[in-house]
Amino acid sequence: MLEQINNDLKNAMKSGDKFTLSVLRMLKSALQLESISLKKDLSDQEVISVIKRNVKQRKDSIAEYQKFNKENEIQNLENEINILQKYLPEELSEEKIDEAINEVFANEKPTSIKDMGKIMKILTAKIGTVADMSLVSKKVKEKLN
Fold it and tell me: Would you tell me how many other CB atoms lie within 10 Å of the CB of residue 128?
């Protein structure tokens, strides 16, 4: 995955696509920081985790910019998200998320909201890289209440 990002970075340099180049440089910097903090080369799962974190930060920023009607910044952030999402695996549909939640509930038989941490830990290990975990959390909370 890192190789693909580096190749795309080189292609953006060659083609003169400054916007894509800046986004990929930010991503590469974030990946290098993560690699340094973990004191090892990143696996594909760790790369995906860093990319998801970057996408989440941009989505949070969009929510803030919407409060102040900053359309230009919102558009830039959406374009950045589109570039980053090329490197993420296809996300699970809501139906597949519901199936995974139901399966974990059947196995673990949670009784109250106190079991949410345990349920989320299992679901994160199971579908964390291919699902929107904020949606999963919301669905688990609804099911527990």
Answer: 17
Give yes or no for a contact between 31 and 2, defined as CB atoms under 8 angstroms apart.
Answer: yes
- Determine the Cα–Cα distance for residues 63 and 85; give it in Å rounded to an integer: 18
Domains defined for the chain, CATH in brackets: 2-85 (1.10.1510.10), 94-144 (1.10.10.410)
Question: Which tens digit of pLDDT belongs to each residue from 29-60?
Answer: 999 999 999 999 999 889 998 999 999 999 99
pLDDT digits (tens, 9 = 90+) for 68-107: 999 999 999 999 999 999 999 888 899 999 999 999 999 9
Contact 9, 25 (CB under 8 A): yes
Tokens encoding 114: 């106190």
Residue 132 to residue 85: CA distance in whole angstroms: 13
List all residues 6 or more positions away from 133 whose beta carbon is below 8 Å from its beta carbon. 120, 123, 124
What pTM does this model have? 0.77
Residue 70: Cβ within 10 Å count:
15
